[in-house]
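User: quick one, sequence for these tokens?
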């Protein structure tokens, strides 16, 4: 299978490249600011905001499947765990996240490629707490609105596409969330981990495997691919710290509700329907962070 990974130089994209190449697929991956380092792919520059460039690149490579991981904000959930620098409050790149998604969908449809579009739990307000695949987005941040608009464009342009909503993406040391824990523990980053901000973190290996499985399936529409555990950002930070040999007592914490920062508090993706159609098991953070880090 010929697979094009849009945004392949990012954290999730790099893992998708690694797994797809290991499975023997012909892989191309795009980058905007710098090429990725994962082996096994042809690295191609692309700005998804350029409609013609997207059409030309997809036409030239001729993929069977396009996996779009490109995002103008924090794809993992529209904001970080610290009390400052929250991209959910206004750092969203609408053109990349919403319009770029439409460009990729148009080009994929024009060249007969199956599309897997990666979205986010940021499309929800948190008012309902638990969200199944059929819930209508009700975003409360610019990033969430851009992700919801991207979903709507993909659904309208290519109804057979998969829209895979996920949550905080964790790895074996390489994610932004893990780096943040180290920064907060060392004092190099100012902020706190919120005890009332709850998500369903997923391991990047599980997520990438699920996306590739969905790509080769006949599934269509919205699928939820997040972890099995709902944990606060503070609990997640403590789990990361313990795994990495850091004293969790060094992590500052507080309530997001007390900060005035915009954004949903408790958002839990119900992945039951999607999980029943996957052989990949989407582990919870309490499980995958109890294991020693795996060097890659």
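Assistant:
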């Amino acid at each position: 299978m010929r697979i094009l990974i849009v945004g392949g130089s990012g954290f999730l994209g790099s893992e998708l490249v690694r797994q797809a190449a290991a499975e023997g697929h012909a892989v191309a991956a795009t980058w905007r600011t710098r090429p990725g380092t994962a082996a096994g792919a042809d690295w191609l520059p692309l700005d998804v905001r350029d409609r013609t460039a997207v059409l030309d690149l997809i036409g030239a490579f001729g993929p069977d499947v396009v996996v779009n991981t490109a995002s103008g904000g924090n794809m993992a959930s529209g904001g970080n765990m610290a009390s400052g620098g929250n991209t959910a409050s206004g750092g969203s790149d609408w053109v990349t996240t919403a319009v770029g998604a439409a460009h990729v969908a148009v080009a994929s449809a024009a060249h007969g490629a199956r599309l897997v579009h990666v979205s986010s739990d940021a499309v929800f307000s948190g008012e309902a707490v638990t969200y199944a695949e059929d819930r209508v987005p009700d975003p409360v941040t610019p990033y969430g609105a851009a992700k919801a608009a991207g979903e709507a464009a993909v659904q309208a342009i290519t109804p057979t596409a998969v829209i895979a909503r996920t949550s905080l993406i964790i790895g074996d040391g390489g994610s932004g969330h893990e780096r943040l824990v180290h920064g907060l523990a060392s004092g190099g980053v100012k902020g706190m981990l919120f005890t009332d901000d709850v998500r369903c973190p997923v391991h990047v290996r599980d997520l990438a495997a699920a996306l590739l499985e969905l790509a080769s399936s006949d599934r269509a529409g919205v699928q939820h691919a997040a972890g099995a555990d709902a944990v606060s950002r503070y609990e997640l930070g403590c789990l990361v710290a313990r795994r990495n040999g850091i004293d969790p007592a060094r992590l500052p914490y507080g309530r997001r509700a007390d900060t005035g920062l915009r954004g949903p508090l408790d958002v839990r993706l119900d992945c039951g329907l999607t999980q029943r159609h996957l052989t990949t098991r989407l582990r919870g953070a309490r499980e995958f962070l109890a294991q020693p880090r795996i060097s890659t």
